[in-house]
Amino acid sequence: MKLSLFFVAAATSAISITSAFVVRPAGSLSRTRQTLKMAKGFGPAKQEPRQKSDGQKDRETKSNKYDEIAATGGQEYNIYVRKFGSDDQSWFPCGAIAVPRGAQVSDAIFANEDGIKAGIVRTYPKLKGEEMEMEFGFNLKVYPDDPVEVASKTGKSAGPSIGNWISNVLSPVDASKVPPPPMKE
């Protein structure tokens, strides 16, 4: 009898000791909140989103054109500017341009000269008033460590010429959408 009483006392103390380390779920009451659901809400009405300006629409159009030319295999170039006749270390980055294969980068730069100059003056206010003394340069965006080449205005040559023929022969052609030749079986 003493042994069974001792055994029962030891078992109950062991259970009480080990139950101290057991995680018990805390009794919690879950209450759901009733929220007011109003369609309009409180406060002033939200303002209409601002309409895009003509300049913003123009920039988006040009950005889409840049993306389109780059996606179809055109070359991407970084554009730089410096004061005319400065040394080769004084180029300021002023944007990027994408040119279709076979087109000249210089022609694309000077076709957009007014817009590029406006962007340069906006980015570098100290160059305001020196727009006539700006000299443009470029290098391939893929190779930014290459030296900057000076962009020069070239006169448009009309008609076929040896220079145009050589340029067309040496120009890499985008053949990504050309189907392979048929295989004879």
UniProtKB/TrEMBL annotation:
Signal peptide: 1-20
Pfam families noted in UniProt: HHL1-like
Keywords: Signal
Region feature Disordered, mapped onto this chain: 38-65
Biased composition (Basic and acidic residues): 47-65
Keyword hit for Signal: yes
Name of the protein this chain belongs to: Uncharacterized protein
